[in-house]
């Protein structure tokens, strides 16, 4: 299992037990801005996805691993949505529709990993975590399109083949 390199927790805000790690993003949200030349959690999730998706267990070594688990699952869901999309334009539309769906937080129906994150102590914390997840999902979607499709707009079978995998035996209906 490939773990996150973000183990330092000093100065990092948390919501629901999840660190709100910096992102190299232009998307508005609660995440701090990271330097463009540094690796962020989205880079790690995409880089480690094809190896981590084969594991049925994922021991957590740091709070950032929880976010890595969530993003690996999200990439798996996104690839399932892209599986039937034969062009980049159709894939982009499918990803945008996925981004418009409601994002549940711990304690709400539909959250894929009950017990992974702590329950929000207030509505403000729930909203902060929901907004962070929305931002990190949008950023992941944009970067995933650039690897799931080639420069000419055709699907990259070496990525879309992983849509058939179940990550840690969790299935989204």
From TrEMBL:
Subcellular location: Cytoplasm, Cytoskeleton
Keyword Transmembrane in record: no
Signal among keywords: no
Family, as annotated: Belongs to the ARPC3 family.
Keywords: Actin-binding, Cytoplasm, Cytoskeleton
Source domain of life: Eukaryota
Protein name: Actin-related protein 2/3 complex subunit 3
Lineage: Eukaryota, Viridiplantae, Streptophyta, Embryophyta, Tracheophyta
């Amino acid at each position: 299992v490939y773990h996150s390199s973000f183990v330092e927790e000093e100065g990092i805000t948390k919501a629901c037990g999840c660190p709100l790690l910096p992102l190299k993003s232009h998307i508005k949200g609660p995440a701090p801005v990271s330097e463009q030349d540094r690796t962020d959690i989205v880079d790690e999730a995409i880089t480690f996805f094809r190896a981590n998706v084969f594991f049925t267990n994922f021991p957590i070594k740091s709070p950032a691993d929880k976010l890595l688990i969530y993003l690996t699952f999200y990439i798996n869901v996104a690839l399932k949505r892209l599986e039937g999309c034969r062009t980049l334009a159709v894939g982009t539309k499918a990803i945008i529709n996925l981004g418009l769906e409601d994002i549940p937080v711990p304690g709400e129906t539909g959250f894929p990993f009950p017990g992974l994150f702590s329950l929000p102590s207030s509505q403000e914390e729930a909203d902060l975590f929901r907004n962070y997840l929305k931002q990190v999902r949008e950023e992941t979607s944009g970067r995933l399109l650039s690897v799931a499709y080639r420069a000419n707009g055709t699907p990259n079978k070496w990525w879309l083949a992983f849509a058939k995998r179940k990550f840690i035996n969790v299935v989204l209906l």
